[in-house]
Every structure is written in structure tokens, then in C-alpha cells.
Amino acid sequence: MTQVVATFYKFVKLPDFADKRPSLLAHCQALGITGTILLAAEGINSTIAGSRQAIDSVLAFLRSDPRLADLQHKESYTDSPPFNRLKVRLKKEIVTIGLPEVDPNQQVGTYVNPQDWNALISDPDVVLIDTRNTYEVNIGTFKGAQNPHTDSFRQFPDYVRHHLDSTKHKKVALFCTGGIRCEKASSFMLSQGFQEVYHLKGGILKYLEQVPENESLWEGECFVFDQRIALKHRLEAGTYHMCYGCGNPISQADLNSPKYIKAICCPHCFDDFIKEA
Fold first, then answer.
1. Is position 10 within any domain?
2. Which pLDDT score is estimated for 276?
3. Nearest to 220 by CA among 108, 111, 142
4. What are the Rhodanese domain coordinates in residue numbering (predicted)?
5. From CA 130, how far away is CA 88, in angstroms rounded?
């Protein structure tokens, strides 16, 4: 049975976020929803899966709160369950950068629609930065993008402080999977004196959905945080698998490597496995 996968987030002041959890959890459970919903005082962040009717019902339930009435979401589809269970969690941040003063509700960069993204990043004066982590960047990114080589989003501010200069880098373009990390990344960069900070509206997923493959500047596949592992253009399922040992996405070449042992390790973690054996 085909399931709808819905991804959405919204930065909005939700001081009563903890009070919202019981009714939201019960509503999702009654509909057989799986996936994760994060609630914090700064907003909501989620990827969930379920039937067409179930997803529509959850979105309507959320939008019945006037603060979430304009909640936007992205959809893709899968023939196998992408999540094992449902989690509705209370968090300090809906995406963790570790800097309470960074608030997208106060300031954020300039949104760029997918149809306008190619023109922006083709400008030689623009510094293009992938705000995702190394294991995500390794399987796909935009042509010419800088890789910050981070293991977690918390490290992104240090990357900016040590590698970028607001007096030299006048135009910066940021992108991430669905757009949420760029909200905080752009807000942080503006607070550091960068004047022109742009970010891809809807993230890589919206770009892959809307921009024809023959016009695309995307190279590779896009890592996603569910059991599909990666998506391609038109949000079709990708070719990557997941290593049970280290959690890294692994390619067909990795599967054929002598350092791949099914359900144990892969070329990314083989040496560590051998040390511990």
C-alpha cells in the first residue's frame, strides 16, 4: 500500500508546546501515523507517513491552531513503510544549533524559489554552502558547493567564524534537505554581519521535485532521514542503503567491497570494527 510521506516545519512562538503533545499524539496514533514530530517553544518540525486520509487529517488538525494555519508541507510517496513507529517529542530546539539567541522568528535570510536557484548559484560572486553534515554531502550536493565538513549542525557556526568573512563574502547562498537548517544558518549569519544571505525555499527536496532533471545543477542523490535513505529527481527512491554498524549511507560499490559485512560493518566503519574485534 502506497504511503504519503509529509515533511513540514514552521518557526512560530509556541509557549504552550508541551500542552499540545497529548492531543496531537492521540490523533496521530488513532490514524496509524508513523514518523517523528518535534515540538518546541520556537515551533514544529516533522516528517510523518501514513495513508492519504491520515496525512490530510493530521495536517488539518495542526492547521486548526491559528498559529499553524499557514503551515506548508512537502510530499513524497513510498510503497514500503519509511518509519517503524511514531514519536512526538518535546525539545529545546526543533533544529539544534545550540545558540538560543539565533531566532528565525526575528530575522532570516532571503528565500529563493527552486525555479530561480540556478541563476543565483551560477553567479560567480555567490558563495554556495551546503549546511548539511558530511555523510549527507558525500552522496549528493549542488555543483560548486562548499562542504563545511561538519558532523552535526552545532558545528556550523564555528565553520562560519573560521572560514567566512562578511567583508569579503558579500553574497552567500545556503541550502539543506528541507529548508529548516538554512533558517537558523541564515539567521546566524545575518547576526554576524553578512549582508546578503539567500537560502533555497523548500530545500533540496522541493528543488528535486520542481526542477526538471535536464536543467538541474544537483549532482548525486539527497539523503533523507527515513528508511528510504536517499531520493533522486522527482523524489523517486534512490540507490543507497544504510549500514547497521555506523549508520552511514552506503552505495552499491560499498556493498561490493570486501570491507562490507552484512548487518555488521561497511567500508566507512570496517577499520573501527576490526580494532574492536
1. yes
2. 81
3. 142
4. 122-216
5. 28
Q: Which amino acids are annotated catalytic?
A: 176
For residues 194 and 106, what is the distance between their CA atoms, to the nearest angstrom? 16
Show the beta-strand stretches assigned E in 190-252. 196-200, 218-220, 222-223, 230-231, 241-242, 249-250
Give me the torsion for CA of 208, 213, 217, 222, rounded to 10°.
Answer: 40
**One-letter identity of residue 217:** L
β-bridge partners, 223? 230
pLDDT in tens, 50-59: 999 999 999 9
How many domains is the chain built from?
3
**Residue 248, φ and ψ in degrees, nearest 5:** -75, 145
Torsion of CA 207, 208, 212, 215, to 10 degrees: 70
Alpha carbon dihedral 256, 79, 31, 43, in 10-degree steps, equals 60
Angle at 54 between CA 36 and CA 12, to 5 degrees: 50
C-alpha cell at 249: 549511507
Query: What integer pLDDT is reported at residue 141 of this predicted model?
Result: 98
Q: Is there a contact between 177 and 91 (Cβ–Cβ < 8 Å)? A: no
One domain, residues 15 and 72: yes
The tens digit of pLDDT for each residue in 75-95 reads: 999 999 999 999 999 999 999
Spatial distance between the Cα atoms of 16 and 37, rounded to a whole number of angstroms: 15
> C-alpha cell of 140?
549528493
Q: Which residues of the chain have pLDDT under 70?
A: 277
C-alpha cell at 215: 536543467
Is the distance from CB of 37 to CB of 28 less than 8 angstroms? Answer: yes
Domain CATH code at residue 183: 3.40.250.10
Q: Beta 73-78 vs 241-242: how paired, if at all?
A: unpaired
Show the domain range for 19: 3-90
List the alpha helices (DSSP H) in 44-200.
52-63, 114-121, 134-137, 156-163, 180-191
